[in-house]
Write a structure and sequence with these properties.
heterodimer, A: alpha/beta, MetI-like fold, Rossmann fold, 2 domains, seven-stranded mixed β-sheet, five-stranded antiparallel β-sheet, 23 helices, 12% strand, B: alpha/beta, eight-stranded mixed β-sheet, 9 helices
């Protein structure tokens, strides 16, 4: 049972108990609700009358339960009627639009112009007091709400591909509405339902209180409150019981409504809280720092046996034994399919892993500008913050989401520059223009005043890159920076990366991508990942010409670029992280697999000094 | 406008197709015409696979929807098997939909999350009463076999499947009505490379086995080249080049096609003759297209004459034409 379903138990249980008691009222050994006992009027609680007796000596508990029956019947009845009619109107209006929309949703909305209590009063005045006129009044009142909710949900769903697919299939409109759209708009309607039941109870009680609802001597909570108000000074408890019942029921329904909303909306809410409120990790900056190594030719970054995990018991490794080395000035492509762990590995380098994940093993040695060697796996958030910008920086795939939409592009750049220690407004603005020009944004003096949404996709990506290189980082991590772009724009951005490489010859670049062709255009070395493991590394040209791991070979053969009639598809799909095969993770999909592949995790082999392959049969692959 | 050469009678034919999505800029702005597709004429013969390529915003998806009859053209007409789609009644149109089906780009959005995939695949069989009720299950299994899914898949809901499997389910659904014509709108773009190959292979097998006419919309030139017999290149709502895939890819006649080919990254290292020619600028807004040739603002060959009139299609060879006054086949480095 999921957490959100468990949370439904409490309000659901109370509502169930309530409804059961009310339904079983005729079978319970209750006093007659009309049996008067004048001598004992206003008597307090006793063994025979648990909650005491009212102004006519009638049993309060019995009246409370029978009154609840009336209130709930009216509330649920009108909510159901309003739900049925409103949903129908909303579905029709939302699906057909045009004239139908005017006749259904818009017509229902006219009712919203009238004050609710006034509308109810009007109906009751015309039809007279009583249960059925009340239900009619409340139904009228709540129908527009449902119509609007159903209408909004229908508008959202009708444009989705699976509805278009039904249309393309030739399904008649009513079939589409009933079979495809209705089930998909139901969740918000259910939530609306519990909300309306609660609110209808309030109005029903209000009207009964005014003497326009249920007719005495039939008990109802509103009537009971009305009667108790007159006797407030003699017996204040008489007012408390129906009020408690009313408030308790409404709160329960509201709680149920809230919890239903969470249960029906499966999007996981991330753990909130500011960074400083989170549990401090074991990370210590001091321990991470080591005196600078003497040799200047050492790698910029060296990742060894990195593991990234989720959960503690059981701990699931999303990435394990990852190896990666970047020399200064080198471009390393991190290639893999979705679920290979390539993005997680790159995020770990900047300390940007999502909250639920953590680095559970291994080290990430990074050589700073002053020659010191830091283990990024040991850093805390504060130390990472000092590092991001001047040392490591990132370009994200979706520039539209990564840039702040309410600030001008130039201001965002200026902020990054000031954070990097640049002072003097004139110097900052000059550098902003220079950076924008550097990344190829035309007319930078004017464009720096643009908001992100005013730039095209390619321009936004350029602005994003300008932001990333603003403080001249020594290591730039680019996560699928061209994936969302069109071919001609992608070519422009790739060219910009080439230019950055020549202009800043010492900057290391980690280019994360799934596109092998992009790798061959840009990278010096390639690191191929599969299911959270590094399977092959080496210089791009050599790896592509003579792959030494069956996965790399299959990946290259599946790109439709050769003259082969049939593409080589890799059977099956990437295994989910909680269900990894034992031994070599690629073995179940591999056409070179031997029995020992599934029994033992393969060691890393080095076919040449500059290459590695995690396959026991690397000699036979090509 | 376009010369079809000596071909069998077309199954689907679009004539002078155009679609306008008028939009208003600001609250009080004037309503402006935004033409997503302009003046497209295209015909597909039975069994033919035509690839439509172009960058986002070039109108290729709108074209696909109009060819399917899902979107009404502002101008021009689409006819299927000689019958004009606009002239059909809603019921006739629904009946005809048995013969034309669609595969969508997003395998996560194109399946109803709340129904079993068996029910979704057999919808078409029930709607068009293609098989007696007793044989629906057998037909469902046949379809699942055809797209390479286990029979146990039928009772599960879409969330139990990976992207590639879902796309095969979508293909099975499209095939259920035994269509003659399929519009595939970027069917492999959302998939990983290795999975993409599975679906491309499946589509190739189906085309061969079922003699389907297919309009394959994609921005991936490699996939189009692999799969299609004929290619249509679109730019800003207009067809700029159309011809046999192999000929067009080897020696494109339109400068935009050449630029698109050059821009597409390749596994094979390019001959190092300087940086590849990279197209400057970006796609103009369809709300404010340039005068004359839509491509002239980015074209390396543009001259004054290009701004004057929309260039007519020039015939390069039978069945191959390009809308450029300087159109000439030229190999891409």
């Amino acid at each position: 049972m999921s957490r959100s379903t468990r949370k439904l138990l409490l309000p659901g249980g109370i509502v169930l108990a309530l409804v059961t008691v009310l339904l079983l009222a005729p079978l319970l050994p209750l006093h007659d609700v009309r049996a008067m006992d004048i001598p004992n009027r206003f008597a307090g609680p006793s063994a025979a009358h648990w909650l005491g007796q009212d102004e006519f000596g009638r049993d309060v508990l019995a009246r409370l339960i029978w009154g609840g029956r009336a209130s709930l019947f009216i509330a649920v009845g009108s909510a159901l009627a309003a739900a049925t009619i409103g949903t129908l109107l909303g579905l029709l209006g939302g699906y057909f639009r045009g004239v139908v929309e005017v006749l259904t949703v818009r017509a229902a909305e006219v009712l919203l112009c009238l004050p609710p209590l006034l509308l109810a009063l009007l109906v009751v005045t015309i039809l007279g007091a009583g249960t059925w006129p009340l239900i009619l009044a409340l139904t009228l009142l709540y129908t527009p709400n449902y119509a609007r909710v159903a209408y909004a949900a229908t508008l959202q769903v009708r444009g989705l591909d699976y509805v278009t697919a039904q249309r393309a299939m030739g399904a008649p409109p009513l079939t589409i509405l009933g079979r495809t759209i209705l089930p998909n708009v139901l969740p918000p309607l259910l939530v609306q339902m519990s909300l309306v039941v609660a609110s209808a109870m309030v109005i029903e009680s209000g009207l009964s209180f005014l003497g326009l609802g249920v007719v005495p001597p039939t008990p109802s909570w509103g009537l009971m409150i009305r009667a108790a108000r007159g006797a407030m000074e003699q017996a204040p408890m008489l007012l408390v019981w129906p009020s408690l019942a009313l408030a308790g029921t409404i709160l329960t329904f509201n709680l149920l409504c809230d919890r239903l909303q969470t249960a029906l909306d499966p999007r996981e809410v991330t753990k909130g809280g500011a960074l400083w409120m989170r549990r401090p990790g074991r990370r210590k900056t001091a321990a991470a720092r080591r005196p600078g190594a003497a040799d200047d030719n050492g790698p910029l970054v060296e990742i060894r046996n990195l593991a990234i995990s989720v959960g503690r018991t059981p701990q699931i490794d999303l990435v394990r034994r990852a190896m990666l080395t970047v020399m200064p000035g080198e471009t390393v492509a991190l290639v893999g399919e979705s679920g290979s762990g390539k993005t997680l590995t790159s995020l770990a380098l900047l300390g940007l892993l999502p909250d639920q994940l953590r680095v559970s093993a291994g080290e990430m040695r990074y050589r700073t500008r002053d020659g010191a060697v830091l283990d990024l796996a040991q850093l805390d958030e504060e130390a990472f913050r000092a590092l991001r910008g001047p040392e490591v920086s990132m370009v994200f795939q979706d520039a539209a989401a990564a840039l702040n939409p309410v600030h001008r592009v130039g201001d965002q750049l200026a902020e990054a520059l000031r954070a990097g220690g640049l002072t003097g407004e004139r110097a900052v603005q000059a550098r902003v223009v220079e950076l924008l020009r550097h990344v190829g944004i035309p007319d930078p003096e004017r464009r720096r005043r643009a908001y992100p949404h005013e730039l095209s996709g390619g321009q936004r990506q350029r602005a994003m890159i300008a932001l990333a290189v603003a403080n001249s980082p020594r290591l730039l991590v680019a996560d699928e920076p061209t994936t969302a772009l069109d071919p001609t724009i992608q070519a422009q951005i790739l060219d910009l990366f080439r230019k950055l490489k020549t202009d800043t010859p010492d900057m290391g670049l980690i280019f994360v991508t799934h596109d092998l062709a992009v790798v061959s255009e840009l990278a010096d070395r390639v690191v191929v990942m599969y299911a959270g493991e590094v399977v092959e590394t080496g210089p791009v040209a050599e790896v592509f010409a003579r792959p030494k791991h069956p996965y790399t070979a299959a990946l290259i053969a599946s790109v439709p670029e050769g003259a082969a009639d049939q593409l080589r598809a890799i059977p099956g799909s990437v295994p989910p992280p909680h269900d990894m095969p034992p031994g070599c993770r690629f073995a179940p999909r591999c056409d070179h697999a031997l029995p020992q592949c599934t029994s033992r995790v393969p060691e890393t082999s080095h076919p040449e000094a500059s290459r590695s392959s995690r396959c026991i049969r690397w000699k036979e692959v090509c | 406008m376009f010369d079809m050469g000596a071909k069998p009678a077309p199954l689907v034919e679009a004539r002078g197709l155009a679609r306008n999505f008028p939009g208003r800029q600001g609250l009080l702005g004037r309503v402006r015409d935004v033409w997503a597709v302009r003046d497209v004429t295209l015909a597909l013969a039975p069994g033919e696979t035509v690839g439509v390529v172009g960058e986002s915003g070039c109108g290729k998806s709108t074209l696909g929807r109009m060819m399917m009859g899902l979107d009404r053209p502002t101008e021009g007409s689409v006819s299927f098997d000689g019958r004009d789609l606009a002239a059909l009644s809603a019921a006739e149109r629904r009946k005809l939909s048995r013969r034309m089906q669609m595969v969508f780009q997003d395998p996560f959005g194109s399946l109803d999350p709340r129904r079993s995939i068996g029910a979704q695949i057999t919808d078409g069989l029930r709607i068009h009463r293609l098989v007696p009720p007793g044989e629906i299950e057998a037909e469902l299994f046949r379809l699942l076999d055809q797209v390479g899914l286990p029979r146990s898949a039928a009772s599960r809901r879409p969330h139990a499947f990976s992207g590639g499997q879902r796309q095969r389910i979508a293909v099975a659904r499209a095939l259920s009505t035994r269509p003659d014509f399929i519009v595939a709108d970027e069917p492999v773009s959302a998939l990983d490379v290795s999975i993409q190959a599975q679906v491309v292979n499946l589509l190739m097998d189906l085309r061969r086995d079922l003699d389907l006419a297919m309009l394959f919309i994609s921005h991936d030139l490699h996939v189009v080249r692999h799969l299609c017999t004929r290619i249509v290149v679109m730019y800003l709502g207009r067809v700029v080049e159309e011809g046999p895939a192999e000929r067009v890819f080897a020696t494109p006649a339109h400068p935009y096609t050449r630029a698109l080919l050059t821009a597409t990254p390749s596994l094979k290292p390019r001959p190092t003759g300087g940086a590849p020619r990279i197209l400057p600028g970006e796609l103009p807004s369809p709300a404010n297209p340039p005068s004359g040739c839509p491509f002239r603002t980015r074209c390396p060959l543009a001259e004054a004459a290009c701004a004057e009139a929309v260039p007519a299609a020039r015939r390069i060879e039978p069945g191959w034409q390009a809308a450029c006054i300087k159109a000439a086949p030229e190999a891409v480095a």
